[in-house]
Amino acid sequence: MRRFLDRHWYAYAMVLPVVVVIAALVLYPLAQGVFFTFTDINEGNIANPVLDRAATYTGVGLTNYLNVLSGDPSFGSFWSTLVRTLVWTFGCVLGHYAIGLGLALLLNRPVRGRAAYRVLLILPWAVPAFISAFAWKYMFNAQYGIINQALRAVGLPDPVWLGQSDWALVAVVVVNVWLGVPFMMVALLGGLQAIPGDLYEAAEVDGASPWQRFRHVTLPGLRSVSGTVVLLGTIWTFNMFAVIYLITGPNPNTRILVTYAFERFFSGASRDYAIASTYGVLILSVLLVFAGVYRRALRRQGEVW
Amino acid sequence: MRRTTLVNALAAGMAAALALTACGGGGGPAGDSGEVVFWDTSGPNESPVFGAIAQECAARGGYRVRTEVVAFDQALNNYKTAAQGGQGPDVLRAEVAWVPQLAKLGYLVDLTGTEPGRDTGDFLATPLGSTRYQDKSYGVPQVTDSLALFYNRKLLADAGVEPPRTWDEVKAAAVRLGGEKTFFLNNDAYYALPFIYGAGGDLVDASAKKIVVNSPENVRALRTAKGLLDAKAATTALDPANSYHNMQAAFSAGEVAMVVNGPWSVADYLKGPAFADPANLGIAPVPGEEAGKGSAPVGGHDYVVRQGTRAKESSIRFVSCMSSTASQVRVAKELGLPPTRKSAYADPGVQANAIVSAFQPVVTAAHARPWIPEGGQLFDPLKIAYADVLAGAKDAEAALDEVAKAYQDQVVTDYRIG
């Protein structure tokens, strides 16, 4: 052991700062959050040095998890909220990817004014999310919004978009797709430009149709970029709070796990830090499982990530 | 969590968008920073007047005041977050239901022994009740209000309809007022209270520690509200996020004949084409199940001082000055907000204000709310249930049973459902 340290002390000394920083910035808050899930902590019993008040919360064991996992409506109907979160996530990511890929393919060919198109298409990304959210909220207004006015003008039924039905979820998915497409488009455009042109030439010489070229050259060439952006997009969308909360507020028809955690933490009936942390830990668990499965699937396809 | 903190910080930053700074004056009393930061939640129509009075109070009292206009719906959250860390305003304009909650959490200075705490004889009993928690005084009433029926005199007169006194009369009037154009129903929880109180219901019975939100009276009350929609005698914005805005737009444009709202909304209405002549705006007590039995919740705002302030003396003097009879008279005359001091109502200028005199009987008859710390938290679950019922997504009974359960699990955990 002694000899081991003598020989390797330098390496350990170099690693130490990173370990300390990660422990302080990542592990400690995480551990505290996990600890809160086993207590009944809320804003009434948390310690407050400013007000000279000691903490009075107590451990409650697994009660918070049992309450949440029972799917009780008073604790956010966990299972149906989880299903809605998955629908929301896959709806959004599918929209992002399909539209982003389509636009990237269009932009990857020489067209006049390509720079202008690129700027325009990237614009939704540059607008602060809350401004887009309020603009869309107004467009979805059931009485005065432009969307329903247009639908009425052509004689189509005009649903109450942001009301107490699943249309609200459709509406927020539309907004989030609009917001997220530019990122996908830029990332995939980068991927497309990294595919060597001679592959296409070779395919063309072999008599491959455009569809075959897309299917057998473009998609495999994009695989590593796609794998990363889809994983990133899934995690972001799963935890996308701003769009849903700013457009529909605490509407149970658009509630996903993270907005419910926020409701319990800040805006709901009480600042119930314990339940909010429990949701946080459950969200983290779901995402870890997803990332693990996804990585394994990619690795099976020969990706090293 | 990182994202949510960010959003909150963003909201706080935006809230402080308008800050009026006054210089001059002395340094304030000893042991006191001499600068009072005042969070005004009153909104763009009213805050200029409160801001001007604040500056005059500061000039007279020898301290400085910085008024920060914050959004009403964000203020409680931002205040709690700030106060927990020893930051935030020195004086907050708090909605009446917030006061017991903030007092219980230890965020407010106990004013019992101070001058505004002793000077209580002149205040109306119901608003004064909102400042009390466990026999101590934690605030000073700023304005009081309640909900009333606003109507478009011309539209009603043209149709030959009297202002309705019952919900059935609203239905009957719809035949002549053009069906859905008769009444705009806001699907927010606070606006369900006239139906609930008018039917003899309530949310909780604080003295008996009982949750009564799913009582048969309340089920009937929400069915009455839904009945107005079903009978095409009322319209609503079924998207809750847009509901209040659409109500204001529709009424001030003359598209609907009647709404239920509070005195703060008058400024919005008078900007609309339907009320270019302010005399066209009629105000009557809210309808009830039976004539004369309408009942609306008492609302309003109190001044509170933050625990941990570094300008305690100046803040208390500021609160005294802001709630003095002279200040209240000025607010009532310029903004039409009903005062909380009896002496202010004696002022001839206040008597002459049409809005105040129309609201005076409404405010006096207003239905008291339970002044419990959880009082302000009763609305979130009810809001969702009420919107569900009006949208036809849920039956009133099932929706209210869920509210009762949510109250018991989250809000008043030591109460029984009964």
TrEMBL record, chain A:
Recorded GO CC terms: plasma membrane
One biological process term in Gene Ontology: transmembrane transport
TM spans (from-to): 9-31, 86-107, 119-139, 167-189, 225-247, 273-294
Residues of the ABC transmembrane type-1 domain: 82-294
Main location class: membrane
PROSITE patterns xref list: ABC_TM1 (PS50928)
Membrane topology summary: Multi-pass membrane protein
Protein name: Carbohydrate ABC transporter membrane protein 1 (CUT1 family)
Organism in which the protein naturally occurs: Saccharothrix australiensis
Lineage: Bacteria, Bacillati, Actinomycetota, Actinomycetes, Pseudonocardiales
UniProtKB/TrEMBL annotation, chain B:
GO terms under cellular component: ATP-binding cassette (ABC) transporter complex, substrate-binding subunit-containing
MF term (GO), any: maltose binding
Protein keywords: Signal, Transport
Gene3D superfamilies xref list: Periplasmic binding protein-like II
Pfam families in UniProt: SBP_bac_1
Entry's transmembrane regions: none
Top-level taxon of the source organism: Bacteria
GO biological process: maltodextrin transmembrane transport; maltose transport
Signal sequence segment: 1-24
Family: Belongs to the bacterial solute-binding protein 1 family.
Protein name according to UniProt: Carbohydrate ABC transporter substrate-binding protein (CUT1 family)
Source species taxonomy: Bacteria, Bacillati, Actinomycetota, Actinomycetes, Pseudonocardiales
